[in-house]
Every structure is written in C-alpha cells, then in structure tokens.
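JOB MANIFEST
job_type = single_chain_structure
chain_count = 1
residues = 247
[input]
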Amino acid sequence: MIKTLIIEDEKPAARKLERLIGLFPDLELVATIHSVEEGLEWFQNNPHPDLIFSDIVLGDGLSFDIFEKIPTRSFMIYTTAFDQYTLKAFKLNSIDYLLKPIMEEDLEKAITKYKSFLPADASYNNLEIKSLIKEEKQKLSRILVKIGYNLKIIQTDEVLYFYSENKIVYLQTKERHYPTDFTLDELREVLDHKNFFRVNRQFIINSNFIKNIHTSPYYKVEMEVSPEEEITVSRDRLKDFKDWLST
C-alpha cells in the first residue's frame, strides 16, 4: 500500500480529494492536514508517508514552510489554483503540479506518473528514484497565464518562443503573446531541452516552429510568427545551438 497524506485547508476541496484518492485501492490515506501549524506537529510525531497531495497556499502560510523546517523524503503532488509557485514546487520533491479544480483524469495521470518511478523490485534505492524524478521534472508541460480577471492554460508545446521585454517574460503562441511570472533563467531549468533552446539573453525558442535559419552574415532564426526584433544566435551559444538542432 502507498501511504498517502493530504494537506489542504479548504474542507470541501479536502473532502473531494479524499473521495478521489479512495478510488485507488492501492492508496491508503493516513491523514488530512489543514494548516502549516498542524503539519509541523504531525510530521514531528508520525512516520512520513510515501506520497503527499499538498495545496500550496494555506490559511497560516505556505505548505513549503512545513518542509523547509522538517525535511521529508516523501514525494509531492502539489494541488493549487495558483501558478506563481510552479518553479519552487518543482524543486521540492515534486513529481507533478495539478491546477484546481482537480479532475479524476488528471489525478490518475499524476498517480500513474508517481508509480512509474517505483521499481518492480527492490533494486533501486530512494536516492536513485529521486534522481529519476529530478530528470523528469525538467519538463514543464503547461503554464497558467492571466488575461484580465481570467486564467488560461497554455500548453508549452503550443509556445513558439519566450522573450524578455522591459523585465517581463512573455510567451508567444500562433495567436498572441501572454505575460508570465517566470524569468528566462527559470524557464531554461524546467522546459523540455529537446524542444526549447535559449539562443541569446532575450529569447528561448521552440524548434517545432522554426521556419528558416539564415547563416550569413550571422545566424538568424525565423519563426512561424516572428517578433519585430530579430532572433539571433549568440556567438557563445552557436556550437550548442548546432548540436541541439542535430539531436
């Protein structure tokens, strides 16, 4: 049985997640925690579970506050309505990041992803499993953006490129651009390196939307939807860029 814990301050959301977890016979729910204070006390006095479903924003702080004071070997699936904590979640034993409202299909995919890291036998130790998860976490599959008072989910495979302008990083789709809460350095850490490459200080491009590459007098990338400013490849990144294109 997979010992499972819920951290959720909204009781209706906690009850819904308890019901959804109950649909999986190999998951055993050991407790539901509603606050940072309750979490600190629980983790000090109980064996840590295998898997934690954790909201991020709680009534008395962030769930991150628990694990910064009491490190845990448990693996996390974060559940939240907010996107600005995505990168930090990726760095704290997180194997997935579910945006509310949580659907049964999304939960099942996250649990399946967790199980994919578990060995069929005892041949892997915990550090090796975490190493596999760290490699998998490189891939950020979607980004939540704000449009006025509304939220929209953008799949990263729909993004032609990310660019920085006036200290804000935007993502560009075929239809329009959207502001994000990331920096280019942060995005470089979590995007799929097979598809995305940072060509210079201002742009990260998606290879699936490259229309043409001009090589004289310098390397210039033409995208299916090109910005006003040319996308040029920095000299110090040129070799890596060529290697990236050929892999």
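[summary]
The first strand starts at residue 2 and ends at 7.
The two ends are 41 Å apart (CA to CA).
exit_status = 0
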